[in-house]
Amino acid sequence: MPKNILSVENLNGGYEVFVGRRRVFVHAVDDVTFSLHNNEVLGVAGESGCGKSTLAKMIYGAIIPPLLVKGGSISITTKGGEVLNINKLSIDEVRRKIWWIEISYIPQNSMNVLNPLKRIKDQFIDVFRYHGIKMDKTETVEHLRDTLTTLGLPPEVINAYPHQLSGGMRQRVVIALSLVFNPRIILADEPTTAVDVVTQRTILSLLKEWRENNKSSLVLISHDMSVHAYMDDRIAIMYAGNVVELGSSLDIFKEPLHPYTRALIESLIRKGDKSIRKGLAGQPPDLINPPPGCRFHPRCPYVMNICRSEEPVTTFLDNDRYVRCWLYTSSR
Amino acid sequence: MHPVARYILQRGSLALLVVWIGLTVTFVVSRLMPFNAAELLISRLISQGVALTGEEIEAMKKQLLELYGLDKPVVEQYLVFLRNYMVTGEMGPSFAFFPTSVRDVISKALPWSLLLLIMASVVSWFIGNGIGILAALTKRRRISNILENVAIAFQPIPFAVLAISFLIFYALVLKLPIPSGGYMITGSPVEMLLYMSRRAAFPLMILVMFGWFGSFVSMKAVALKMREEDFIIYSFLQGAPTGSIRYMIFRNSILPQFTILVLGLSRVFIGSLLVEYIFNYPGIGYILQGAIANADYNLMLGVLFFATIATAVATFILDLVYPLIDPRIRYPGQG
Questions:
Q1: Which domain holds residue A261?
Q2: Which of A237, B116, B274, B325 would staple A245 via disulfide (CB 3.0–4.6 Å)?
């Protein structure tokens, strides 16, 4: 059995916001359990607003109000073999021990996150400085030149300012930044949303190759099922704050179980396909006031009575495959 | 030629062009005034009871105009004026303080204005921006919001109202002495400077007291917005310590403020009649006001010449310095 380096148990949380005077809680992540194995790509899929990014923030430990963790635990095995509970640490401890050293983060709009007033090499040197890691400047710059070359960037880039690079180049720089300390986990939140499919493929391939060479794990968040098909070893499908299905990507693409997963996969275009794609009617639910029972029931084509009143339980099909749907509880 | 050198040369000649246009416009405007210095002097004499016949008046006017150089055609006056300013550096005599030269009049008053107004701009800029960045970064939101509301409330009140109210409060309620003194003083430059500083201290205090609101409000707004910028949040997630993030916010917010400072500094050459009048302070604003009231064309042009030069030089300097402080702005031809 593969070793887990990150495990998330019954994670609950969301945003506490004020609507007028009324305090409401947007329940963006509801009872999420999964684990990340060593040396794998775990994809998190789902439509916009289903809690993917919130989950990423919570795993990363960037709990800044109005984001709130209500319960559950996130534990990580560090490079040194220590097991740390991320949500038990203070934000300063997380900053020093976890961020960039154990887990690094590739943000959603990664082409616009570089400091406009600093040269690329100085942005790398800064990361060393932030973590109090001593380094030799010229040596680091040499090393950097090599890293950027492997990412397909010309070595002159290190002396450039961000505005002198194209969007795709800046994304690659951001990816290189997240890899400086060889973290064991990389959290990529829609890393390639803003570029065309060709650049997207280049960037994803680079990430894939780097990960394979370093035996690290990648949590890839994307709404794009084709990205998941290309990258993932396992996929978690999220709907309205729940992980509704989790399994190896082969199984999920071959035999999707949850009706929502099925709809997602049916919406993909296949080679040689002549029929018109089917869509899923309706909108994702309001997370302030989610529907009772299964959150998917208003849009589900297989809806049963029990779905309207009771939350489905997690059904494990084998060690690494589960689904949260009433359709599969009765059959067992 | 090196592209940067060529750029500097280009910008320099553009600055010269701006100065020339400025001077020409001032010249035209001054000659369009419906009265001239000779007529004003004569009417003043008459109103003081000097009996003059019509012929005497005409003769006197002619003589005065000749003396001032205003009898020649306007085009010739303009050429003389251009030669004076651009070639010889002479600015001709002042009419109101005849025959003292314009240069002497200005050189007596200008240092006073420069000392006071430059100090006021710089000190208020530092205080305003310093408090502004602290207010944007502090966790004590309440204090910084109160401060901002006070600043926004005070900002639109005209300085005259604020200054006079403060003077009344200071002199009549607190009963503290207001330092004052003369204008003419002889002594070594150090003594002069000390004397001037003593005289400038009080108006400086009031100028700063009501002058920092502007940079405070804009700095706070810029820095608050900067806090939410993606690259700041990204460096936070990279694990940057609070100090580094604060410095980054400061460094990126100060750029627009710098422009405000330099352009503000160029304005001090015209003096501030209001400040000088309220505090009875012998600066260039007074001189300019006198020059306009007396149709003293030469003096007017002299004062405005400095102001034009200062503005042109300030924009020139900004253009040269900006690429050094903001890498997004580059000299043409530079990679």
A1: 4-102+183-270+278-328
A2: A237
Mean pLDDT of B143-147: 90
* Distance from C-alpha of B39 to C-alpha of A233, rounded to nearest angstrom: 97
Q: Is residue B103 part of a domain?
A: no
- Answer whether the bond into residue A301 is a cis peptide, omega within 30°: no
Decide: helix, strand or coil at residue A321: strand
CATH of the domain at B271: 1.10.3720.10
Residue B230 domain boundaries = 112-284
Identify all chain B residues contacting A120, using CB atoms and an 8 Å cutoff.
none
How confident is the model over B29-51, as a mean pLDDT?
A: 81
Total number of domains in chain B: 2
Residue of higher predicted confidence among A270 and A308? A308
DSSP secondary structure letter of residue A116: T
The confidence score (pLDDT) of residue B234 equals 92
- Tell me which residue in B233, B238, B252 faces A127 most closely, judged by beta carbons: B238
B58 and B116: one domain?
no
Listed by number, the residues of chain A in 120-149 with a beta carbon closer than 8 Å to a beta carbon of chain B are 126-127, 129-131
Residue A111 lies in a domain: no
| Closest chain A CA to residue B234 | A113
**Buried b / exposed e along B80-102 (16+ C-beta atoms within 10 A):** ebeebbeeeeebbbbbbbeeebb
Mean pLDDT for A60-69 is: 86
Q: Which residue has the higher pLDDT, A45 or B95?
A: A45
How many whole angstroms separate alpha carbon A92 and alpha carbon A89? 8
Does the structure show a pLDDT above 80 at A194?
A: no
Q: Please report whether residue A16 resides in a domain.
A: yes
Question: What residues in B contact A114, CB-CB < 8 Å?
Answer: 231, 234
**Per-residue pLDDT, A332:** 44
Q: Is residue B163 located within the same domain as residue B259?
A: yes
Q: Which residues of A touch B330 (CB under 8 A)?
A: none
Has residue A136 got a pLDDT over 90? no
Give pLDDT, residue B5.
86
B241 touches chain A (CB under 8 A): yes
Name the band, by pLDDT with cuts 50, 70 and 90, for residue A276. Answer: confident
| Residue B295: predicted pLDDT | 82
Residues B20 and B127 in one domain: no
Task: Answer yes or no: do B241 and A130 touch at CB < 8 A.
Answer: yes
Per DSSP, the three-state class of A279 is coil
ipTM: 0.87
B21/B252 Cα distance (integer angstroms) = 36
Whether B147 and B245 share a structural domain: yes
Q: Within this chain, do residues B249 and B314 fall inside the same structural domain, yes or no?
A: no
Is B107 within a domain?
Answer: no
Residue B224 buriedness (CB in 10 A; 0-12 / 13-18 / 19+):
middle
Q: Does B251 touch chain A (CB under 8 A)?
A: yes
